[in-house]
Structures are given as C-alpha cells and as structure tokens.
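thread from #wetlab-drylab

HS: before we spend reagent money on co-crystallization trials with adenosine monophosphate, can we at least see a predicted complex? here's what I'd submit
DV: go for it
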Amino acid sequence: MSFSALGLCDELLKTVAEQGYTTPSPIQIEAIPAVLSQRDVMAVANTGTGKTAGFTLPMVQLLAGAASLQGQGLQAKSVRALVITPTRELAAQVAQSVQNYSRNMNIRSAAVFGGVRIEPQIAQLQGGLDVLVATPGRLIDLYNQQAINFDKLEILVLDEADRMLDLGFIDDIRDIQTLLPSKRQTLMFSATFSPDIKSLAKGMLNNPQLIEVAGANSTVDTVKQKMHPVDKARKSEVLIHLIKRYKWRQVLVFSRTKHGADSLVTQLEKAGINAASIHANRTQHARTRALEGFKNGDIGVLVATDIASRGIDVNQLPCVVNYDLPDIPQDYVHRIGRTGRAGTSGLAISLFSDDELKKLQSIESVIGRPFEHEIIPGFAPSPKAPADSSDDDEYGNFEADPKPQGRGKSKGRGGKSSSRNRKNW
Ligand code: AMP
C-alpha cells in the first residue's frame, strides 16, 4: 500500500516523502480515506501508530479544498478546524505535526494551552486560523475573553479522548461541544474503547466509521516487556544499576508522583547520570527545556509523571522504565507506547514491589495476559526469590548507541527459557 492510493493530493504526497515516510501505517490506511470522505470517525489506536498524520493529512487536504472552492480568506477570530488534546505537551507536539504536514499547503495553524501568557495567543487568533490545537481549559478561557469564534468550524478532532476523561475534562468537553456548530465533521481518537468513551462518542459523533487497528488495550507487539520484582527501598539503586550496566543513553522513566520524580532525579544525578523531571509542578519553560535536553541527548534520563508524559514523542525511544506501576492500569499501555514507535523495536522495563501486586494484577487483566516475574541478579527481593531469568542480550539490543559495548553475545543466555512460551514478547 502506498500513500498515493489513499487519495492524498500531490502536495501532501510530496510532504510525506519529505518526512521520509514510505508506507502508510495501518491506522493511516484506514483513517485517511475515511476522513477524506468527510465521515465522522471513531478510531481506537495506540499511541505511536502514526495517528497524528492519520487525521492531520486528510484534514488539511479538506481545509485547503474547501477554501479554494469558497475562494475566501479566513475570518477574524474564526477557526476552521479544532484539535483538542488533554495536555500542553501533546498540544505542542500535535501543532508541530500540523505545521510539518501542512508545510506545502496554504494553512495557518497555532497551538494554545495554559501555563503561558494568553495575550500572544489572543493575537494569533485575531486574523483567524485554519487549524487550532488547544487544551480544554485555555480554549474556554479564550472563548470567555471573546478571542475566538466557532461559527466557521468545519472539523473537530478529539485526540487521546480516553486521557481527556481520565484527567477530568469531560465537563469542559461537553461545554465546548455546546459552542460548536452541530453541522461539522468530528474525529475521535482514543487508545482504549471503554464504556465511558463509547458514551462520549455517542453524544458527539454522527454515524461514525469505527476504526480499530490494534485491539483496544492491547500493547504494541514491537515492545519487549519485562516485569522485575524488587524491594521498594532499592528501586533507585536498581535503576542506576540497569542504566549503567546496559549503557542506556535515552530512557524515559515513569514516576507515580511529582515528589518521587524529583527525588529520583536527585539520586540519579548523585550517581553521575544526567537527569531531569517533567511534571505539572514544573513551569512550562522548565518542562520544555527538559524535553529538549532529552531529545538532543544532553539529558539521558527523563523522569515523568503520567500526565506530563502524554506529549512526549521522541523518535525511536529505545527504552521506558516504569519505576512505579501506574494507578490506572490503562496508563501502562500509554506508557509503554512511548517506545517501539512507528514499527521500531522497544523495551519496557517495570520495577514492582510487594505493595504494588494489586496494580500488577489490574494491568494483567487490562492487557489480557500474565507477566513473568524476572529477578535482576543481585537485586532479588527479600525474603522470597523466584528463579533468575534475566537475559543480557534482550536488554543489549535496545541500547541507543549501536557501537559494541564490550559484552560477549553469549553472556546471559541461561535465562532465555523463561520466556519461551511468550508469543508476542
Ligand atoms: P503518532 O502515533 O502520531 O504519535 O506518530 C508516531 C511517530 O511515527 C511519529 O514520530 C511520526 O513521525 C512517525 N510516523 C507517522 N507516520 C509514519 C509513517 N507512515 N512512516 C514512518 N513513520 C511515521
């Protein structure tokens, strides 16, 4: 399957080629023609599947086509397509993608989110926009300040709708919906298809085409998942050991709490590892700086809370670590979706202590299979210890630096049998 078979115009085919994309991803194969046919779409797709291009490419094509038919420019304060995202980082990320994907078209786009001054955003809206990417709270603020007008809205996209509900934005979304024209095209994307999402979709979408590329709640096949039992008090020691031993250069670590994230960063830095945290208590500037440092390699370890992690899109992130298991089991799926993106392989390491067994079981029921508990040599939890099953090669495959690391290939093979019955791991 090629992009040209999906009905994209020449400008967009040129753009995807410039991005280096040769084949559309499964979600793109389904979503692009569906959006181009101007139907509503409900897409259940894990993160990292290429869904942003899946809705942005056809959306900008529709906008460009409609604009040339009408032959008119943008109206002051009006927005033709609105993309709502749950977090600031995701809004910035999606807006960047919209810019990239519309670079060969005459499309004006911007992002608005909280945590930064509102005045420049009001100024950006003044002349009208083709595409606005927004978080719910700031969007409502802008509306209340009469900086935005939805009369000309043609397309609404709800990105990561499940996350929007988890974060308590349901009332905001419903409020926003009442402000929008009822005649519009609506696209909803969600990593899971829970009963709450179904009911939200029912109220917002009109006879939608349902697109489901990976089963709801399924974890990405290209991610190798490891579940390690450890003593709670030794978690930071274990993480430092793994980072040093396997020479990880770029690892995203999930912490359950903001405080936990900061104290882990302190311990990593004491051990000589460059690290930074990203969570809601940090200023937008500090979060952006941490993310940039992580992307350009200055910071090897980024410690994030779930909320802050949503917009982190680093190409081919080799490894994520669940330093704490998430409270919401679906977050496990979101977290590990940060690695193994766009068909590249990835590694997801989870450390769990005795007090997290209930969370572990909830995750297993969400993803529909049990984990093996693999002891890390030298870090068996006290007092009981299942059989050792760690495997050096499996970790070594994911080092960011492809140069030889001085470890023999044959080392550590003894534990391989532990995963012999796993189909997808
Ligand atoms: P997303 O799921 O939208 O966050 O996209 C995940 C990553 O996949 C991004 O880094 C995109 O640049 C990349 N990507 C999207 N579509 C393709 C494609 N057809 N081929 C290769 N990479 C892609």
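DV: The pocket of adenosine monophosphate is lined by residues 21, 24-25, 28, 47-53, 313, 315, 341-342 (CB under 6 Å).
HS: ok that's useful, forwarding to the group
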